[in-house]
Amino acid sequence: MKTHYLFCLILVLTFSSVRAQDDYENLTVSIGVVVSDLEASIEFYTNIMGMEETGELDLNGSFGKASGLTGGRPLLVKILKLKNSPDATEYKLVSFGNDKTRFDKHIQDQNGMQYTTFFIKSTEDIIKRIRENNIEFLGDTPIKLPDGRTFILIQDPDGVFIEIVGH
Domain 111-167 is of which CATH architecture? Predict the structure, then answer.
């Protein structure tokens, strides 16, 4: 009897997870990041990381409160993508004018979203932009990975770790 119950449970869990995966309309995830200075963050992500601003959402305070996103404050969301394509992940930036609250030294220092990884074809241009803008390389980066690619670690204007991996 226990074996039959266990078999049924495994079947239910298997089919439940498959069904849940089929529920998704999009195969990308939109990531929302609250930043202290919207313009500085847009500057970083467009001019250093090479993303492009593809749109915005201007949401009033009523929506902010009804949706539970804010306590009634309006929000202007700037949408950035690596490429202006419907298949590209959205990186959404919003600011409420909050002060910078942290600049961790390592991803282990706090829970929550700590880093974003960008995979690029060549690291040559981005290394040049990082140096020209006096952005600090963290650790001993850039370093070579065993597969021949280069790994770079920097931080955005609010201290979010940015991993860059490429040739």
Answer: Roll (3.10)
